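The following block was generated as part of the benchmark described in Methods. Ligand: calcium ion.
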Amino acid sequence: MIPPVPYALEINRFLQRHHYDRVEPKAALIDMDGTLYDSMPNHTAAWYRMMSEQGIECQRDEFYLYEGATGAATINKLFLRAYNRNATPEEVESLYHLKTLYFQEQPPVKPMPGVKEMLEILKEIGMRRVLVTGSGQNSLLNRISTDFPDIFETEMRVTSRDVTHGKPHPEPFIRAMQLARVKPSQSIVIENAPLGVEAGDKAGAFTIGITTGPIPRKAMEDAGAAIVFDSMPEFAEKLPSLILSLLTVIKEP
Ligand code: CA
């Protein structure tokens, strides 16, 4: 008996939904916060402190759900809820600046366990790598080439400065596909948050969700993840067999 191809079910479900005959993995479009770096606890603490100081009622954990959105989008979401209006551009600028300061006051952020192994595998098998983040936070962006040497070429980055619409809009990933010169069916997206997963799936990429914090896997499945892994080390371990399966599985008629 021929053993079943790992993940054949998930891959086929994805092919059917997007009307692709196959996935031809050539580029990995990779999120930063919560994926490369274990930075989300610091971000949520900074958001919570800044908003609470403004007298805006909020919960620390709710900021996990806005992960991937631009700073402006998050500020407007809370302004609409509290004041029934968007923040002015000046308010966005000063509040995001304050949030950035509070983020920098937090203890240093570490790379996510398992992520270096994962990136090395992508590099070894010759996949192009593009960083795709809603962040414009220089304290992390400036560390990328030191923490992950020879992984991301300088021009292979999409940050909040390069797009009009942040995640969950597909624009950041579409931009990344253009940079890597690949089609949607030649891309995989690596994400840890529902808004990012939604953006990746809308852009047409095989989108992989990885739970690295309190966001439940169901939230990523509902957002359109083709497959969800329970941790970064688990994903790194399964990545070679997933890629092999992507190369093997063709849409069932
Ligand atoms: Ca993220």
